[in-house]
Amino acid sequence: MVCRICMCMWPSGAIGTDSMIAGTCSCMFYGIHLKLLIGRPFGGPYGHGEAGEQMSPRKSESRDRMVLSAAALLREYGASATSIDRVLAHSGAPRGSVYHHFPGGRAQLIEEALALAADFLTGLIDTAMQVDDPVAAVDAFFRLWRDRLVESGFRAGCPIVAVAVETNDDAPQLARSAAAVFARWQEALAAFLVRHGLTEERSRRLGAFMIAAVEGAVIMCRAERSTAPIEAAAAEIHDLLLHALRDRPGAGSGPRP
After folding, report:
1. Mind listing the pLDDT tens digit for each residue in 102-121?
2. What top-level class would CATH report for the domain 128-257?
3. pTM of the entire structure?
4. In DSSP terms, which residues pair with 126 in a beta bridge?
5. What residues does each domain of the chain span?
6. Which residues form a coiled coil (predicted)?
7. In 3-state terms, the chain is what percent helix, strand and coil (to 5)?
């Protein structure tokens, strides 16, 4: 099946088949596609006009398609390849709309695509962290990334990494934005582990290590066209987290309220 928002391919019947996040397509943005398809803009810091007025559906759709296309291109091709021309070709948006919607040009467009991808991936983390078993939650998060890699033919990377490693001096705010996203994820994971009885210091270290492990594994999987790196990382994190939970103060107790 072809997604008519970003023109990616996604498996027929995928809706509702994933127990953790229902209806993701192979480009990981199905939930956002759905909001666009039913005419509900996903919003964000530039979701309204200069004076705060709600944009018309036609203008909003064109703008949202460009942001979504930029996020998809970042994910597959990296920041340097995500040009205005490529976004226009991918989204089908009219060229004249670029500086109307994005007066800050390419840097603004990429920053909004980064924010969109960050919100979506943060939602995956938050959803995974709702379960009572922290080991099962982390296993599920790694498994989700593994599945997305396979479904996309190992094209699906992380848009945040793409921005972080390719940012140049012309747009230093993009590197800062990427760093803020990583910090946000680490804080979410650390808070989750603290709730399950680990110390704050250990939780911070493990949170940082888990993010580093999954991001590094995704890069290696794409290079090798194999799931072996992420499976190895997932297994090692699984064992590490089990030991950490067994060694925690008051081991055997449940999560903190």
Report:
1. 998 888 999 999 999 888 88
2. mainly alpha
3. 0.71
4. none
5. 1-113, 128-257
6. none
7. 65, 0, 35
